[in-house]
Design goal:
Elements (H helix, E strand, L loop, with lengths): L6 H14 L3 E3 H6 L4 H9 L3 E5 L2 E4 L4 H8 L3 E2 L1 H7 L11 E4 L12 E4 L16 H11 L2 H13 L5 H5 L5 H9 L7 H10 L6 E7 L2 E7 L3 E6 L5 H16 L3 E6 H6 L1 H13 L7
Parallel strand pairs: 5-6, 9-10
Antiparallel strand pairs: 1-3, 2-3, 4-5, 7-8, 8-9
Helix pairs in contact: 1-3, 5-6, 6-7, 7-10
Protein name: DUF559 domain-containing protein
Organism: Microbacterium suwonense
InterPro entries: DUF559
């Protein structure tokens, strides 16, 4: 069958095999998938593939992040890979994070933070993206506690990893502390931040509970509600939220509404509002 193919068809086949393998692949792996070195050479000559580095090629439409990682003998990991997995990651973390063999010599661009630590899960030679266990372990080492906890809880919430699996791995102390604290039902990083920042109050904190037909972000005690506005708090959404606030107040709740940026960048202001409300007993039963 292959002998009956034209050079173009053979080149296209090599390209399609590369694409099926994720768009970036080792020549050795392509050959194991019945793309001959000759066919790969044809695809390179015709511009259907391009050479990434010795032993690696890529489809012309391949993910540029994967191509860059392959070019430097690295894998995407830590917060960079967490973002790709749509986990909660602090939105103002600069640069890219890669993992690499500490004995390798792939070099790195200036904007890359390279993690040289030995991975928990061995990396296959074809891998360009770290397994979730390696990602979380490096996040634990790299990010401040609060940010790391939000990412860990996001991974547990999305069921990308099981707690019992993590417990069996040789985690460092900082990662074990995160695992002990993490809860699997926190569905947003903001929830993690609020829980850790308000724990000292010693009051019941209930997140994402339904009151008056809508979800509330946080109920503190019995009737103090904190609502956090996101980027969509405009137009019809704002009118609906205002109506819900009015209903809550008529039911005897006290509502504090703040913006996402206030929580992330002006926490002292938000905390002061909550403390003053608690001091006035606005969290107690009516």
């Amino acid at each position: 069958m292959l002998a009956d193919m034209s050079p173009l068809e053979r080149a296209e086949r090599a390209m399609l095999i590369t694409r099926a393998l994720g768009g970036v692949a080792r020549v050795q792996t392509l050959q194991a998938n019945r793309a001959s070195r000759h066919d790969i050479g044809l695809a390179l000559k015709m511009g259907l593939l391009h050479r990434v580095r010795r032993g690696w090629v890529a489809d012309t439409s391949a993910d540029r992040m994967l191509v860059d990682a392959a070019r430097h003998s690295a894998v995407l990991t830590c917060i960079t890979q967490a973002k790709r997995l749509e986990l909660w990651v602090h939105d103002r973390v600069p640069g890219r994070h890669w993992g690499a063999d500490p004995h390798g010599a792939g070099g790195q661009p200036e904007d890359v933070h390279m993690h040289w630590a030995k991975p928990l899960i061995p990396r296959h030679p074809d891998a360009l993206e770290d397994p979730i266990e390696n990602v979380l372990a490096l996040v634990a080492d790299c990010e401040p506690h609060e940010r790391a906890l939000a990412t860990w809880e996001s991974a547990l919430n999305k069921r990308l990893v099981k707690r019992e699996v993590l417990q069996r791995l040789p985690l460092k102390r900082v990662a074990r502390d995160l695992l002990a604290e993490a809860v699997p039902f926190a569905d947003a990083g903001l929830e993690t931040y609020l829980r850790t920042r308000l724990r000292w109050l010693g009051l019941p904190l209930r997140f994402q509970i339904w009151i008056a037909g809508h979800r509330t972000d946080l109920l503190i005690g019995d009737r103090l509600i904190l609502q956090a506005d996101g980027a969509t708090h405009t137009g019809a959404q704002r009118n609906e939220d205002n109506h819900h606030d009015a209903e809550l107040q008529l039911m005897g709740y006290h509502v504090i509404r703040v913006g996402y940026r206030q929580i992330m960048e002006q926490w002292h202001v938000v905390q002061d509002l909550i403390m003053r409300a608690v001091a006035q007993g606005l969290h107690l039963p009516a």
